[in-house]
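Sequence design from tokenized structure. All designs in this work follow the same two-part layout: the structure record, then the generated sequence. An example of the structure record is given first.
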């Protein structure tokens, strides 16, 4: 928040007997920063995965990679975000690439094992406008945008006594969802801050439903460097089909804590 202090200049008329003496040069008031400001954020999201996945002609399988399984199931990730603000307007972009591997049991004869490797790309872009709440430390913006998801599933089945089941399956699905939501930024004091984000979308355009929630608490170390810790959850209910690949069902929640480093410029 930038505030402007008003300056009052008091002048007395010079008398005829006294020569006028020049006063001090007026000082220009501080100016409000104009144009765009930016924040690049690099973060690590310790994702867990819960839900059901169905590929080709296989029955839907329950997938459950808990927090205790993160190191075992988490293969790698690349994550980052860019926030741009200008007056009451904001633009937020976010990119997540992650790979998880999990084993599941199918509830059919002999409980064959299904190994699922998931590679997920999530790219989001939203624009927001700040609501006039009257609190200089609180920004609440309504947002609208798009979320693109590209999911590749490699499924390997250990069939036991079920040789008629396809042993390996690879499917790639991509879809684009419209999303609407809210972004909240609250400055607790000069150092501490609280951020939150929530959105919902899909509505049958891409997925049947997608929603996301993010909360974090952060600290400004300098004017350019901040860190934060928080929790993020992303739910997706997508169903697709093809003549050759059959039915594809992805009804899962990715969730977990994250740590972030922000660079402001």
């Amino acid at each position: 928040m930038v505030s402007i202090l008003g300056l009052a200049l008091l002048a007395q008329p010079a008398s005829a007997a006294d020569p006028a003496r020049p006063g001090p040069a007026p000082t220009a008031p501080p100016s409000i920063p104009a144009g765009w400001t930016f924040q690049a954020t690099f973060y690590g999201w310790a994702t867990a995965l819960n839900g059901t996945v169905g590929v080709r002609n296989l029955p839907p399988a329950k997938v459950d990679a808990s927090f205790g399984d993160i190191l075992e199931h988490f293969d790698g990730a690349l994550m980052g975000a860019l926030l741009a603000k200008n007056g009451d307007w904001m633009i937020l972009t976010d990119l997540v690439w992650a790979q998880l591997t999990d084993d599941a049991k199918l509830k059919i004869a002999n409980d064959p094992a299904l190994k699922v490797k998931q590679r997920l790309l999530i790219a989001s872009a939203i624009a927001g406008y700040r609501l006039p709440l009257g609190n200089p430390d609180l920004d609440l913006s309504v947002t609208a945008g798009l979320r693109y998801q590209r999911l590749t599933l490699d499924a390997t089945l250990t069939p036991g006594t079920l040789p008629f089941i396809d042993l390996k399956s690879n499917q790639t699905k991509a879809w684009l969802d419209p999303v609407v939501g809210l972004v909240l930024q609250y400055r607790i004091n000069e150092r501490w801050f609280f951020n939150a984000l929530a959105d919902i979308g899909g509505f049958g355009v891409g997925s049947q439903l997608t929603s996301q929630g993010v909360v974090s608490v952060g600290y400004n170390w300098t004017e350019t460097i901040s860190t934060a810790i928080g929790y993020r959850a992303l739910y997706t209910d997508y169903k697709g089909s093809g003549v050759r690949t059959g039915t594809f069902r992805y009804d899962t929640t990715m969730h977990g804590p994250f740590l972030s480093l922000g660079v402001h410029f």
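DSSP finds one helix and twelve strands in the chain. We note this feature because it recurs in several other targets discussed in the main text.
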